[in-house]
Fold this protein.
Amino acid sequence: MSATIMFDLDGTLVDSLPDIAAATNRMLQDTGVAPLPQEQIKQFVGKGLPKLVERVIRHCDLPMDRHAELSRKTLEHYNAASSDKTVVYPGVLQALVELRDMGCVMGVCTNKPEAPARHVLEALGLAPHFATIIGGDSLNTRKPDPAHLEASFAAVRIAGPQLFVGDSEVDAETARRAEVPFLLFTEGYRKSPIAEIPHTVSYEDSSELPALVRSVLQSLGHNA
């Protein structure tokens, strides 16, 4: 039996950190603040762009009443160059083709705003594999609220088992609250040790994903 599989985007399907960091540092340059190292900005990724900007504001000791303005500036810079340096993780395209051939229906559930998420997926040739794309501003809520993930599954209206694939603590919490199996990509933007992140299975090479999906489905009593 096939499954419906939702994927996180940043840190799971694509390494977008260089473009996120570049947009953030352009915003800081506009504000007269020195740029931050990419690895520092990586620690701020998760829960969407507004949360990233909030964390940057606190780190740089900027006034929080500028949050809306600086979020807008960061998004403008990101929209202007959201796929310049972003790359697809090795093995992802092959895995998506195999999962499609297995009969799986796939979508994206990301805290990235929907418009740049769609642009990145189109620019990198991933969009045709996904039946739905739900961004962080598509609803009035976002991960780790399970309603975000549940809305993504509801958008494709396919009966059968549901799985979520992600790379972070936020994704793990979302899957736990939605009560769906979670497949953890260990090479993304997680901040905690793998053992501390609840997951059904983990993988470091995306080419392993189809076999892992079959295994999880079999453990649930389904034949992939």
Observations:
- The mean pLDDT is 95.
- Strands lie at 4-7, 14-15, 87-88, 105-109, 132-134, 162-166, 182-185, 201-203.
- DSSP finds nine helices and eight strands in the chain.
